[in-house]
Write a structure and sequence with these properties.
With 43 residues, the protein is an all-beta fold. The protein has no helices and 2 strands. It has one domain.
Length: 43
């Protein structure tokens, strides 16, 4: 009885986090006036 239908090798690590997958920067809204990410710096 075969269970595995298909196995594929990982081509690049962190593919979903790469700029090739998602070009836009991630922006996380922490509160009404605070956003982290994008082109702004948070200190």
């Amino acid at each position: 009885m075969e269970v595995v239908e298909h196995v594929s090798e990982i081509q690049k690590p962190y593919k979903l986090a790469s700029r090739e997958f998602k070009k836009e920067s991630t922006i996380v809204k922490v509160s009404r006036n605070v956003e982290i990410g994008g082109k702004k710096y948070m200190l």
